[in-house]
Amino acid sequence: MPNSTPDTKLADELARLDDEVRRLEREDAAALADPGMIQEDRDGARILLQNARLAADEARRALERLRSGEYGICRECGGSIGADRLEALSDATTCIECQARLG
Ligand SMILES: [Zn+2]
Questions:
Q1: CA of residue 80 to ligand 1 center, whole Å
Q2: pTM score of the predicted model
Q3: Gap from CA of 73 to ligand 1 centroid (Å)
Q4: How much distance in Å is there from the Cα of 37 to the middle of ligand 1?
Q5: For 6-18, how does the pLDDT look when each residue is reduced to its tens digit (9 = 90+)?
Q6: Among 17, 25, 75, 77, which has the highest number of CB atoms less than 10 A from its own CB?
């Protein structure tokens, strides 16, 4: 989308992640209910779900920062994070210099 702003891009991403969480929740519930499923597979389903929830939370926070005007501002130095970095990592909260400094 040529006209997509960070706002719509993040909102789309969040919607996609929320869908993913819902899908994985169903799979997780199905895995728990399936007596034929081994524990490892249940654990795998649980881990996928947890990761998806974390990713959705990150996207939600990024969207909140965007709407409150904090998006793209480094939380360490208060400087601008930079469009290139945000393009690569839409929920970045530090600039590339601080990221390097913090390791
Ligand atoms: Zn910084």
A1: 7
A2: 0.73
A3: 8
A4: 47
A5: 778 889 999 999 9
A6: 17
